[in-house]
Recover the amino acids of this structure.
């Protein structure tokens, strides 16, 4: 049971970090339209949106992984 408790604490820290990353992404994204313009800017913005979508997808998986990790730790 000690493993499960430690896992819960660890996963809480992971979720807090994920929430902080998501907040930072949401705060910086609107600022990007105030940087520069042109084809290079558009290409960079497209790449940025793609990277952020991948990061967001990973962050969205955290709660499900948390439940799995806690169940696994409970079994040990």
């Amino acid at each position: 049971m000690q493993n499960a408790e430690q896992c819960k604490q660890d996963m809480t820290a992971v979720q807090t970090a994920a929430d902080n990353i998501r907040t930072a992404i949401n705060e910086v994204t609107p600022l990007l339209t105030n940087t520069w313009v042109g084809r290079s800017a558009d290409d960079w913005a497209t790449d940025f949106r793609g990277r952020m979508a991948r990061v967001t997808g990973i962050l969205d998986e955290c709660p499900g992984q948390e439940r799995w990790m806690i169940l696994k730790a409970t079994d040990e």
